Amino acid sequence: MNRFLQTAACVMPLAKALRMRPWLQVLLAVLVLGSWVDSASADIWYVDNENGQDTNSGRTELVGPLAAGPFRTIGRALEAANIGDTIVLAKNPTPYRETITFSGAKNSGFPGRPFRLIGNGAVLSGAQQVLPKQWEFVRDAIYECRPADGAFQQLYLGSRPAQFQAVNKDTLVDLEPLAWTLIEGRLYFRTEENVLPDAYDLHYAGGQTGITLYLVHHVSIENLTVQGFWQDGINAHDNVREAKLVGVTARGNGRSGMSAGGSSRLDVVSSLVGDNWHHQVRAEGVARIRLLGSNVLPNGNGATQLEVDNGKILEEVPVVNAPIEGRLPINPVRHARSDSVLERSLVPTRSSRLFDDATIYR
């Protein structure tokens, strides 16, 4: 800011000396401000959910003296960051368990320098463990529990979404072992013979939406897995423009993996969407989602995997059968490349691989 004020202090007297008209003086001041904003360096904020603390500065990747070190939560980094900044996550075995919101100019960027969240392959999860006391015996080897929200759901068996089976109360006895269903807000699961539910590592979708985008522009979310949320993995709620999801995996969510509403515009680049319970991708209102070299697996419960409620979903770049690992911009940079360079540098890819060695069920 001091540099801008110094520049303006030099320019304005010159403009007056040249007897420029008032409106030309204002225009010159605006051009100076635009040049200053474009040349300013973006800050990088680091987050580590295992080694960081929200009382740290967030400016260094490693913990050091005098509160130096990463934040613990993404939410704290979003509070600290400003327009055009970059947030870098450490990839740890422990998922990031929070819901986050990008909102307003503070969490937006500029043309050629977006506000970036770089996941480095980390996982953002809303999954919540089903405690043994939550299960109630129904009949045979079928058990039920009532999650916090029963409109949409998902059940994880270990690190993967369990197999969903569409049955009703009258045909509940037909539920297969290790399959689940949702009836009137209650989640039903059938164990193997002579095995109790607490013998399995079971989680249901506890968080509502993993990432919400609202009133933001020039945003890039990269190399992140979002899973285990009962509504949407990622939701561009309204008035979102020039936003990109690059190398993102959205799987095992309830209503959809990715959703856009209102007048939002969202580009999904080299990403993977699958195993979401009701729909994979949805667009409502006058929203538009472009799928650019992304893979959408038709393995949800909804009749329509690409759900359109007045919105548009466009597949503008066909997928190819190649893994996305190793092709993503995972290292932070202070000045991001322009949109055209970014899109040229990302080879359209297709993959059914998840983080580590897990694979989405088809």
Describe this structure in words.
With 362 residues, the chain is mainly beta. The chain folds into 3 domains: 2-38; 42-126 and 206-345; 144-198, no CATH class. It has 4 helices and 26 strands. Strands 1, 2, 4, 15, 17, 18, 20, 21, 23, 24 and 26 form an 11-stranded parallel sheet that branches. The protein has a 6-stranded parallel sheet with strand order 3-14-16-19-22-25. It has a 5-stranded mixed sheet with strand order 6-7-12-11-10, with no helix packed on it. A hairpin with a 2-residue loop joins strand 8 (155-157) and strand 9. The protein is globular and about 90 Å long. The chain starts with a helix and ends in a 17-residue tail after the last helix.
Overview features:
mainly beta, 3 domains, 6-stranded parallel sheet, 4 helices, globular, disordered N terminus, disordered C terminus
> What is the percentage of strand-forming residues?
35-45%
Low-confidence stretches: 1-7, 321-362
Terminal-residue CA separation:
54 Å
Q: Tell me the major beta sheet.
A: 11 strands, parallel
What pattern of helices and strands is seen along the backbone?
Answer: HHEHEEEEEEEEEEEEEEEEEEEEEEEEEH
Helix/strand layout:
Blueprint: H1 2-17, H2 22-39, E1 44-47, H3 74-80, E2 86-89, E3 100-103, E4 115-125, E5 127-129, E6 136-139, E7 142-145, E8 155-157, E9 160-161, E10 163-164, E11 179-183, E12 186-190, E13 202-205, E14 207-214, E15 217-227, E16 229-238, E17 241-246, E18 249-251, E19 256-260, E20 265-269, E21 272-274, E22 281-284, E23 288-292, E24 295-296, E25 306-309, E26 312-317, H4 339-345
Parallel strand pairs: 1-2, 2-4, 3-14, 4-15, 10-11, 14-16, 15-17, 15-18, 16-19, 17-20, 18-21, 19-22, 20-23, 21-24, 22-25, 23-26
Antiparallel strand pairs: 5-13, 6-7, 7-12, 8-9, 8-13, 11-12
Helix pairs in contact: 1-2
